[in-house]
């Protein structure tokens, strides 16, 4: 008996110990999620692959300006045979007609090597310059994708925390309304209140149950969105601590953030390089009507051998070998190509206009986004502070309403409304903190200053989730 009792106690203590460690040991931090996303995010992987592909554009554009070396070899075999009638007249006047077969087998081996170099080609030169700009565009596009991953990770991570906070608030509200419903029924049973108060409490409790169901679904959806970024499922996440205090963006000057965005926004940088590449491509098409000059050196060797049947003094077996060396300077000037040169020129300049107008539009949007996000973050700072105060004031109002209800000066509707205000204030406070975090990330992304250091800065305010109590699970 003693052994069994001790074993049961040890098992219970072990389970309790593991339960205490589980939230921390099995929880992911924001840095954990970001590192997993760096490895698994399909969108970023696609951007990296596109970046590597675009890096080759510079080499491809430069290739026509570099020497072109080609080597070739050929071997041919020729076997021929023919039969003809031959008339032979002898001295005695007799004539003999014979079938004579002639044949030959010839083997030819040849080798050649050539070196070509473009001496003058303005079209190819502008293509090369455009390729350099396209490479710079690829670098800026990848940097923008890397910054966007930080934003997407933060949105998904704090989206889960937001949904979990809303679910906790919904469960707490449902429990509070359940207690209020029980108290209302007891007061009705002793004749202190009318049945309408019971109906009102039941209706509010039922609506709270619906809200809880909705929030449970929102948590599941948020977790699925997080798994899209990381490619795997996650358990609990570290939560934003109460010591996190929103601060106004630095510098506080809105115009400074506009300047940051115009100078550092990676999407804007990418489209500027795209515009320059399009301009040079258009120049390249324009230069297609100009002459080109190229030089070519060629060296070749060939060897020919074989046999003939029947061999005669006048029909010797083929045998020869030789080599050839040549240098060519070639001048080409397109005189007429069916209108293709002019059409390509017009088309490429219109394509340049497309990119230029897109750059103008993106510049305007970048400026507007910088201003609006700065205003939003400043507003978020004030909203977090105001909503924190709203929790205190709504709780005081609830306490006063409950006291009035106890003495008969307030009714059940007043109490239920006051309770709703408390839980709404709690939800709004949590949501405003997450809004501040996400909007701050977006502001820095738009300004081109967002980096993994911002993830590390947030990590300091995250704490391991507390184990759920039995009442919260219910």
How does this structure look, described?
By secondary structure, this protein is of the alpha+beta class. It has eleven helices and six strands. Helix 6 (254-264) packs antiparallel against helix 8 and helix 8 packs antiparallel against helix 9 (412-447). The protein has two domains: 18-66 and 121-291 and 339-473, Up-down Bundle (Outer membrane efflux proteins (OEP)); 70-119 and 295-332, no CATH class.
CATH architecture of the largest domain: Up-down Bundle
Secondary-structure element series: HHHEEHHEHHEEHHHEH
- Amount of beta strand: 15-25%
Poorly predicted runs of 5 or more residues: 1-24
Number of domains: 2
Strand elements, count? 6
SSE-based structural type: alpha+beta
Q: Strands across the major sheet, in which order?
A: 1-2-4-5
Please count the helical segments. Answer: 11
The CATH homologous superfamily of the largest domain corresponds to Outer membrane efflux proteins (OEP)
Query: Helix proportion of residues, in percent?
Result: 55-70%
Shape: elongated
Can you identify the CATH class of the largest domain? Mainly Alpha
